[in-house]
Design a protein that fits this description.
single chain, 218 residues, alpha+beta, CD59, 2 helices, LY6_UPA_recep-like, GPI-anchor, lipoprotein
């Protein structure tokens, strides 16, 4: 009788193992692309596959992760790291390997293309390029950082942005200088570059040196 019970228990264990969910994991990502997509067997309590995207409130690349999770953990969240706010969007599904397509749900033809500008002065950009927006940042934008101290120049930036951050003005202080950040969004390809010509390299370097000199002058 004991041998029969042990056999039943072993058979039940095999059945449970065979029915466990399989999900993709990815811990090696760069620029939203997965370089190591590996299927894994979830534990008994992990009944969902998930895709998570952490989008920051500043121009920082999205952080993405895939794997197994419990149904109760399938929810969005917010937080901050070193003063930078972020939003976590978590998408779950319940069939084997269902979280692969969720990692890149939009094809290249459906994604918005925007101008980028990491450094700009007086409404003109130093280095202009383009980028394809991710699902968490579906808008093009141009932004301006203006200080309330006359000797500090205003700065400009462009790129892709989350909808929750569009068409907003934020204020704050850096040391003793107050500042305001304004972001304006649009939703068609390359719509954020028409009124922002590129600044010649020599002019931009000259402006940077002048700004640095003014900070040290008396």
């Amino acid at each position: 009788m004991a041998k029969f019970l042990w056999s039943c228990a072993a058979l039940l264990t095999l059945c449970v193992s065979a029915e466990s969910l399989n999900c993709f994991t990815c811990n090696q990502t760069l620029l939203g692309t997965c370089f190591l997509l590996v299927p894994v067997n979830c534990t008994e309590t992990q009944n969902r596959c998930f895709t998570a995207v952490a989008g920051f409130s500043v121009d920082i690349l999205d952080i993405k992760e895939l794997g197994c999770t419990e149904e109760s953990a399938c929810r969005n969240g917010t937080g901050s790291i070193l003063g930078y706010n972020y939003t976590i969007t978590k998408t779950c599904c319940s069939t084997d390997l269902c979280n692969r397509d969720a990692f890149n749900t939009a094809s290249a033809g459906e994604s918005l293309t925007c101008y980028t500008c990491k450094m700009g002065f007086k409404g003109k950009c130093l280095f202009t390029s383009t980028e394809t927006c991710s699902n968490s940042k579906p808008n093009c934008y141009w932004g301006s950082l203006a200080f309330n101290v006359s000797r500090l120049m205003s700065l400009q930036t462009r790129g892709c942005l989350a909808s929750s951050l569009c068409n907003r003005t934020e204020t704050g202080a850096l040391l003793t200088a107050g500042y305001s950040v304004t972001r304006t969004c649009c939703s068609t390809d390359l719509c954020n570059g028409a009124t922002h010509p590129q600044l010649p390299l020599t002019a931009a370097l000259g402006a940077t040196l002048m700004a640095a000199w003014s900070n040290w002058s008396f």
